[in-house]
Amino acid sequence: MENKLNNVGPLKKVSLVFTAGTRPESYDLIATPQPLEFIAGIGTEGLTQLECALDGKQSGDKGMIEVDSKNMAEIFGHIIPCTDFLPIHSRHFYFQYVITGISDASPREVVKSMAAATGGGCSDGCDCGCGSH
After folding, report:
1. How far is it, in rounded angstroms, from Cα 65 to Cα 112?
2. How far apart are the C-alpha atoms of 115 and 124, rounded to whole Å?
3. Rounded to whole angstroms, how far apart are CA atoms 93 and 101?
4. Helices (H), ranges, 1-133
């Protein structure tokens, strides 16, 4: 029987590393694994495509999402709200990930993440294209 306590799900803190490439299994856009941590299921617009892809997975699981830059908000939403965090200048790419940890988020972490998610994540004048100018 599978232990659901260690699976990605709502209000779990998810840690992963990601790379990106112009083809599946290529790393020509981001070769060095980059860390990313977030609380799953706190977005004001519902679950992102990334959260849906991760749902139920465990630490050590790997995956890939095909990304068209015009769909970045639906794919990453509050998880990567600012394109400066994901400096990819390709219209189409593959986001590869490895889950490195899953834990319960403390109430303080949940509130802090929810506040950041509703605040847009960028500062005034960031010039990233997020609209917070």
Report:
1. 27
2. 16
3. 25
4. 49-54, 72-76, 107-118
Distance in angstroms (rounded) separating the CA atoms of residues 28 and 95: 11
Rounded to the nearest 5°, which phi and psi values hold at 31?
-90, -35
pLDDT at 83: 63
Q: What are the residues whose beta carbons fall under 8 Å from the beta carbon of 110, sequence distance 6 or more?
A: 11, 39, 42
% of the chain surpassing 70 pLDDT: 82
Note the pLDDT tens digit of each residue in 56-81.
Answer: 999 999 999 999 988 988 999 988 87
H helix or E strand, kind and range, residue 63 = strand 62-68
